[in-house]
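Researcher: Re-running this chain for the archive, since the previous output was lost when a drive failed. Same request as before.
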Amino acid sequence: MAEQVKKTEEEKVVALLKQTGLTMASAESCTGGMVASRIVNVSGASEVFMEGFVTYTEKAKRRRLQVKKKTLKKETAVSAKTAKEMAKGGCRAAKTDVCVSITGYAGPNGGTEEKPVGTVFVGCCCLGKVKVKEYHFEGSRSEIRQQACEKALILVKKCLEKVNKK
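Model: Regenerated structure tokens:
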């Protein structure tokens, strides 16, 4: 009997995108393109993954994803509202059905008392509906980025599973 090979989160996401006939983009800040990199590791991802935006600065978030200046000033770049606007803006800019966004403080510097290092917001815009989750990760900069990437893929998968059930 053949051993079952456990699928990675990115393999599950690509499979669900193909099943639903949807396309995807990513809008990343603190992860610097890690989600896009993991997606394109999957054979056949080019059928469903259109492009990735690495918008590390506020200026890039405004220019590429149309995150509002007011949002960045009032809520900061690391906020649920920014993650929401990044996800929506990514769908718009890439002309995709789905976009995952990640913004946070990976450390070791940055962060505030209210939003310490490890605070990350992950958003997913799927067919116009946006879900945002807040996380508080611990570890090194690299570990925080890895955890954020994993949670982003899981959020996309959950959003796609809802579409698939309809």
